[in-house]
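Sample pair:
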Amino acid sequence: MSLGFEQGGAQAAQPRRQRRIVATRLAIWLSAFLCLVCGPASAAANAPLTSVAFYYGPQPPLADLQAFDAAVVEPEYVSNPAARTRAAADGTHELFAYVALGEVQPSRPYYKQLPAGALRGDNAAWGSRVIDQAAPGWRDFFLDTIIAPLWQQGWRAFFLDTLDSYQLFARTDAERAVQTEAMVEILREFKRRYPDAKLMLNRGFELLPQVAPLTYAVAAESLYRGYDAGRRSYGPVPQADRQWLLEQMENVRDRYHLPVISIDYVDPQQPGARDLARDTARKIASHGFVPWVADGALMSIGVSSVELVPRNVLVLLDVAAGEDLHTSEVQRFLGIHLNHLGLRYEFREVGRQGLPTEPLAGRYAGVVTWFRNGIDHPRLGPWINARIKEGVPVAIFNAFGFQMTRITAGMLGLTNFSAPAPDSLTIIEADSQLMGFETKPRVDRTQLESVRLSDPKAPTLLRMKDNRNNLYDAAALTPWGGFALGPFATTTLPVLDPPRWVLEPLTFLKRALRLPDIPVPDVTTEGGRRIMMSHLDGDGFPSKAEYPGSPFAVEILQREIWDRYKFPVTVSVVEGELSPQGVYPELSAQTTALARKMYTLPYIEPASHSFSHPFSWADAMHGTNRADITQMDGDASHTLEIPHYKFDLKREIKGSMDYINNTLLPPGKKAEIFLWTGNCVPPPEAIAQTYLDGFLNMNGGDTMITNSRKSWTDIAAQGVRKEGWYQVFAPNQDENVYTGNWTGPFYGFQRAIESYELTGEPVRFKAVDIYYHFYAGTKPASVAALHRIHRWAQAQPFTRLYVSQYIRKVIDFENTSIARAADGSLVYRTGPNLRTLRVPDGAVEFDLNGAGVAGSAPGPQDRYLITTASEVRLAPRAAATPQPSVQLLEASGRVGDFSRSVDGNRVELRFSLTANGAANFSVAGARQCSASADGAALPRNTDRNSSIVNQSWFGNFTGKSAIHQYELGTANTKLATTRHLVLVQCTL
C-alpha cells in the first residue's frame, strides 16, 4: 500500500479480465498527496517502454506497480493518477486506465445510459455485452461519458481493451469493415480531443494501418500460455495459434515500430507457477516484446522484463474490541524489525476482514501472524497451507491461531499428539544464537502446544520434554518459514517491565521469511550520517518560567536553546492556547506576538498541534470515554475546555493550520505538518483527514528504551498503517516519558541520550529526535537537561533535518519499489526524498560505478550507500571491475546531481549538497584533493569530531587512503536550507 486511501465510492464494474469484485469496500488510493510529498508531477518522458504491469483488482499496490514503466489499472480504484507519473530520470512510470471499447459490463454505472441500439450481443465467458461501434451516438457517448470524466480526474494514458469483440456478431467482411472504420473514427476523434493522450491497444491489428501514428503501444494476449475464462483453465497456446499471433506482433514491431506487449497467463496454484511465469516471460522477451505473465484475472503481481522483489509483508492478527492497531503486540514488538529489514507491512484483522483470496506470490515477501492463545480461525490452517504451496514464507508468533489437528499439523511438517497435562516440563534444547536473547526461556505449562517436528532430524530452536518423555517443539525454522510460540517469542515476568524478547527477532524474521541479502531503503541515515531532528509539541506555550521576571517559557527556550545551538527545529502551537477564542484570552495578545516573533527565526519550521489538543482522538471523535486521561500529559479532560466549542475534525486539523498560516507566519513560511496530540492514537479517519487536507502528519510510537528498560520491545516502528492511511511516528519520545509525566525529576529528560544511543548502536534502528514541549522551558532543571542533550548532539556527526524532511523520507520508504532485471541487477525507485540504501552484512558486493551512487559509508553494523537519484541500478560487481577509486564518504545533507569523471590519475566529482545550516563532507580514495562550493575554494576541515571517522565503529571502513574533509558555511535564509554546488578535484 502507498500513502493512503480515500474511502467510499461506488464499486467499479470489473474489466473483462477480472471475474468478479472481491472486495465489498472500495478503497481508492490518495495519490493527490504525492503532490505535497514529491512536488508537481511532470509528464513521463517518451522513454522506451521496457516493462509493464496489468493489475485489475481493488486496492492496487501502487507502490509496487511503480517498479514498472507502465501499469494498467481499473481507474475507479485510483485517485489523481497524474501524481504518480515519473519522468525518465526518476524511473519512468505512468498509470494507464483500463477502458473497454468493444464491450460493457452490466454493472458499469453508465450501462443504463447507453445509446439505443448500442448493444449487439453477449460475451458469455466474461458476462459482458458487445457494443456496435457504428451505433448512432456511441462515439460521442464513449468520449463524453466514459473518457471525459477520466481525463478530468487526471488520466492521460488509456488501455483500450476488447477491440476485436465485434467479431462475435460481425460475420461478413462488409460487416467487419463497418466496425473497424467506426472504431478508427473513434480513435481519431479521441486523439483530436486529447492530443496528449497515450493509447495502448489490445490487439486491433486490423486498425493499425490507419491508427498506428495515434498509438503508443500494442498488446496481445496469450502468445505462449493462455487462459480460458469460460472454463477457468490454463494451458499452452497451440503452435498454429502462436505462429499466427507472433507474425502479427512482429509486424507491429517491425513495420510500425511500436512497443509490443504480450500478456500471458499461468495458474498461480500449480506447482512451480512462479518459475513457469519467469520462463514464459523470458521466451516473450526473446522476441523483443515486453512480457507480462500473471493469473487469468490479472489480480496478482506477475513477471515482466523485470520482476518485483517483494518488500511488503501481510500481517494477520485480531484486534480486541476497544483496542487499536497502534497498541497491538505485533505492531509494538515486530514493526521496527520489519522496517529495519527494509519491509513495509499491512494488517489484516482476520476475524473482521477474513482472509485474502487473491494470489500473494510476487506481491508479498511473506506472511506474519500474531494471535493470542485460544484463538481459532478454522480456515487459517488451510489458507496457510495454500500460501506454502504458493511459495510465500510464513512466520508464526505466539500462537498458531487455529485448532491444531493431525491434518493441520501435517500441512506444516508437524506432528500433533494428545498427552495428559505434564507434571513437569524441561527445556532440553535451545538454539544459542536465537533463543535467550534478552531473557532466558522459561517454561509455562499453561501455554503448551502439543506439537513437534515430524522429522526427528530437523533442527529445532527450542525443544521441551515432559515427565512422560513427550517432546514438544515450541520454536523452529522450517522449510515453509518458522514459528515461535508463547512464551518463547516475548515474555513478561512480574519483575520485568517492559516485556522482553526471548527470541532474537531480526535474525528469526530474516531466516523465516527467506529475505535476500540485498540493499534496503533506510530512513535513519542521510549522506552516510545518522539523522538528527528536533520538534516541539505546542503544549504549554502560555506557561511562565521559574526564572527572574517570570518570562514565558518560549522566551527561555529561544534564549537558552534555539539561538545558542541553531539546530533545525520544528515547532508547533495549540491554537486554543493562543487565540482570543481559546482558553487564555487575557494572554492572547502577548502569546500571539511571541509566536509571531518565534516563527521569524530562520531555523524554525512551523507546525500545528491542533485546535483543542484532544487527549484521546477516538473519544473526542466518537463521544466515548475509554481512554485513561490521567496517564499522559497530566491532561484533566479529553480536550482543552474551549468555550462554546464542540469537537470538529476539520477544525482541529485544517482549521488550526489555517490559523497558523494566516495569523502567525511571516511571508515565505508555510505550516504543512500536523503533530498528533495526547495519546497520539488517532483513528484512521483522523489520519485520513491530514492526507485529504494535504498535510504531513507525525507523533506517537512510544520508543522508551533506556538502560533501565533495555529491551527491543520498547522500540517503536517508523509508523503504523490503519485502513490504508499511514501515521508517521516520532523516532523518540518527549520529556514526559523521562520525568514521570512531568512530576519529576525534571532533569530526567537527559536520559533521552540513553534512548538515542541504544537505538543507534549496535543496530541503527532510529534517527535522533530531540522532542519536547514548551513547558520544558519552565524549570531550570529541565532546561539544564536540554542543554546536556543539545551538547551531546552537537558533538555527534549527524545530518540535521527538519521534521518535514524526515516524514517525507518515511513516506518514500513506504512507496519504494525494488525490481530485479534480467541481467540480475536491482532497480530501486525510491521517490525524491529517500537517498540512502543500507547494505546488510553478508550481501554480495555491488558495483558502485553506476549512476546514482556517490559513495559508501560505514555504520555500526552495515554500510550505507549515498544515493543521488530517484532511480538507482545496482549490479553485482564483476571480479574484473574495480570499485570507483574516489568516493564520497559522508555528507551532512542530501547529495544530488552527482557525476564522476576520470582522466588518468585525476578524478573529478561534481554534486549538489543541500543542507540545513553549516555543512561538511568527506572524500575517500585519493592521495590529494581540493574542493570548492558555489565557486569559492573550501578549506580543509581538521575537526575529526564533526566526522564519522571519529566513531568507534569506523574501523568497519576498509579503505587505506587518506580522507579529505571540507566544511561549508551558510547564511540563514528562509529555513536555513541551502543548496551548494560542489566540485572536488583529486589526484590518485
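The first helix runs from residue 34 to 38.
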